[in-house]
Amino acid sequence: MTPGVKPHIQMPARVAAGDVITIKVLAMHDMESGQRQDGAGNIVPRSILNRFTCAFNGARVVDIQLEPAIARNPYFQFSALVPEAGEFTFSWYGDDGSVIETTKHIQIT
Amino acid sequence: MKFTRRDALTLGLGATAASLLPFSAASACEDAIAVFTGGQEPGEGDISLRLPASVKDGSSVPVLAEAPGAVVLALFTTHNPAPQIATVHFGPLSEPQSLLTRIRLSRSQDIVAVARLADGSYIRDRKSVKVTVNGFNI
């Protein structure tokens, strides 16, 4: 992932305890599949985000293993149960060893 | 080393096998599913896979997989360069178990969603999609 590019996360800022929310997550990444040829006919080497995780106050929501068949700028939409106020942690792991982590607070109404 | 008639026959057989590649790609998908399920045959159940029936551009095709009660959900393709798309492990705070994402497709083919349930059994759903432009070349 290009350093400095913040992933986009869409989710409510406050909910009632025990509510289920929808989380939409978009990361900006070329997800080079290792199948594409450049102008000179050379294969562009594979470089993708190979794992995405989302946890809430340390408990797992999803842990996704990504393959080159995931489209550029990987987008995920999933649901999470929010039992209490706290913090969502989102992490992406790149083939190049890079880890991008971002957090989002949620409040209880 | 001498090039015998037997060698020529072997080469010919290899070429025949290569010409049947789409067929072996489909079995690569079946093999990948068997690895995921540990050899168990997935049954019918509460799992739904939704995607467009036909797309022009294979580089970003929306796919929605819903499998309430699933512990793990894996997506496969029959004719992409590799059969795996993604594997999702759902945690205790995932509710209900579903994933919407965008995938790449190289050609017209089938997508298969397989879910592992809490009791260790597997269920699957399968959908076809027509693709005009190879999403791996874009």
Summarize the structure.
The complex is a heterodimer of chains A (109) and B (138). With 109 residues, chain A is mostly beta strands. Helices cover 0% and strands 51% of the residues of chain A.
Q: What portion of residues of chain A belong to β-strands?
A: over 45%
> Which spans of chain B have pLDDT < 50 for at least 5 consecutive residues?
none
| Radius of gyration of chain B from CA coordinates | 18 Å
Strand neighbour order, sheet with most strands of chain B: 2-8-7-4-5
Low-confidence stretches of chain A: none
N-to-C series of helices and strands of chain A = EEEEEEEE
How many structurally independent domains of chain A? 1
Helix segment count of chain B? 2
How many structurally independent domains of chain B?
1
Indicate the percent of residues in helices of chain B.
10-25%
* Element order of chain B: H for helix, E for strand: HHEEEEEEEE
Task: Please tally the β strands of chain B and state the result.
Answer: 8
Measured by DSSP, the beta-strand proportion of chain B falls in 35-45%
Q: What average pLDDT do the residues of chain A reach?
A: 94
Second CATH tier, the architecture of chain A: Sandwich
Which two chains share the most extensive interface?
A: A-B, 31 and 33 residues
Question: What is the mean pLDDT of chain B?
Answer: 90
CATH topological fold name of chain A: Immunoglobulin-like
Can you give a write-up of this model?
The complex is a heterodimer of chains A (109) and B (138). Chain A has 109 residues and is mainly β. Chain A has a single domain, classed as Immunoglobulins (Immunoglobulin-like, Sandwich). Helices cover 0% and strands 51% of the residues of chain A. By secondary structure, chain B is an alpha+beta fold. In chain B, 23% of the residues lie in helices and 40% in strands. In chain B, the strands form two sheets. A five-stranded mixed β-sheet of chain B has the order 2-8-7-4-5, with helices on one face. Chain B has a three-stranded antiparallel β-sheet with strand order 1-3-6, with no helix packed on it. In chain B, a hairpin with a 6-residue loop joins strand 4 and strand 5. Chain B is flat. The mean pLDDT of chain B is 90. Classes of the chains: A mainly beta (109), B alpha+beta (138). Chains A and B meet through strand 5 and strand 6 of A and strand 5 and strand 6 of B. Strand 5 of chain A pairs antiparallel with strand 5 of chain B, so a sheet runs across the interface.
